[in-house]
Amino acid sequence: MRSFDEIKHLPQFPGIYGFKGPNDIKDNYSYIGLSNKLRERVSQHLLKRESSVATVATAISLNPDKIAECHWWIHESFGAREYLEAAELIAFERFNPTLVSRGSPSTKALDISNNEDFKKQMEKLFSNVPSGYIKFYDLSWAVNKIKQLENEILELKKVISDKEK
């Protein structure tokens, strides 16, 4: 079971967000979605367990216990829904997530997503470090962290012991 206390640090801005599993590598995302209010939507997924995701083959649900990180991107154009939808389409192409939201983009969003200037802006946005991210820790992380701290304490004790000699 993961702790989702960090959700409170998400902004309430419109944005694109991506969930990573514990074994996802750098640019791999298990899920990409959009929201007018990031904190509210991520909370729906992870705390309320309300999700609308799809794969190419069939609809499935997102397992919050398998989500290790949430990354998000914000942009000045995301206040307009059609630009947010267009950015999500570009994010789907860029990251090729396992799961995507089920929403259907508007015709205007499809047009915007094909606009070369907008596409370049979004590719630059998604190629850089996300606007923000949070990690969700689980019991195995805590056990590994305790082991790491125990080793550091042992090393410090050895240094102190060697200095006392």
Describe this structure as you would to a colleague.
The protein has 165 residues and is α+β, with helices and mostly antiparallel strands. The protein has a single domain (5-138), classed as 3-Layer(aba) Sandwich (GIY-YIG endonuclease), CATH 3.40.1440.10. Helix content is 42%, strand content 16%. It is built from five helices and seven strands. It has a seven-stranded mixed beta sheet with strand order 4-3-6-2-1-5-7, with helices on both faces. Strand 3 and strand 4 (59-60) form a beta hairpin. Helix 2 packs across helix 3 (107-113) and helix 2 (81-95) packs across helix 4. Mean pLDDT is 86; it is low at 54-58.
Itemize the secondary structure elements and their pairings:
Blueprint: E1 15-20, E2 31-35, H1 38-46, E3 53-54, E4 59-60, E5 69-73, H2 81-95, E6 99-101, H3 107-113, H4 116-127, E7 132-135, H5 139-164
Parallel strand pairs: 2-6
Antiparallel strand pairs: 1-2, 1-5, 3-4, 3-6, 5-7
